């Protein structure tokens, strides 16, 4: 409590935001598990010192987890996760967040399929960001010079992709939950 969904917590309080976070986490875990795609869970902070990295987190049964490196910017953390996955031999890597209740297993499968013929796949969010980003190789420029958590993230990312000559596939636009307004739209 107090460390997740902080923008939402400013609107509805930290306890209610934690419950929404848990629900979104469950929906995301279910989509990933049902899609049957290889996955690693990246945690924002280290769990209790007695936790074993080889053991799955209760929210993500059967999936390995890692701790994100300390970095101020979301882009730095995402670039690191992509780099780690490619360094272990992955040929197609997709990153998702946990705030998109409409994420379905078919969308994850579609993302991986699109990476067979495209360099980049993006799942646009209604707010101008994205809920999913997939690559066939690390493209550091996609993570630099972004005003994260704003409506310019997706257009800036697509502009960078065009400048780099990347073949881009776009998935359906989905709604994410960052504010009380977003929550009301989802619940409605």
Automatic annotation (TrEMBL):
Signal peptide: none annotated. InterPro entries: Nucleotide-diphossugar_trans, Trfase_1_rSAM/seldom-assoc. This is Glycosyltransferase.
């Amino acid at each position: 409590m107090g460390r997740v969904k902080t923008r939402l917590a400013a609107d509805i309080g930290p306890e209610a935001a934690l419950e929404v976070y848990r629900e979104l986490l469950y929906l995301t875990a279910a989509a990933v598990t049902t899609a049957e795609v290889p996955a690693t869970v990246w945690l924002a902070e280290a769990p209790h010192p007695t936790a074993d990295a080889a053991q799955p987190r209760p929210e993500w049964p059967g999936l390995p987890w890692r701790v994100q490196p300390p970095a101020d910017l979301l882009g730095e953390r995402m670039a690191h996760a992509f780099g780690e996955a490619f360094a272990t031999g992955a040929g197609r890597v997709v990153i998702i967040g946990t705030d998109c209740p409409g994420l379905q297993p078919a969308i994850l499968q579609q993302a991986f399929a699109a990476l067979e013929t495209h360099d980049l796949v993006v799942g646009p969010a209604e707010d101008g960001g994205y809920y999913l980003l997939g690559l066939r190789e690390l493209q550091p420029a996609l993570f630099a010079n972004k005003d994260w958590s704003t409506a310019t993230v997706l257009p800036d990312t697509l502009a960078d992709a065009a400048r780099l000559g990347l073949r881009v596939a776009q998935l359906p636009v989905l709604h994410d939950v960052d504010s009380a307004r977003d929550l009301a739209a989802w619940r409605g």
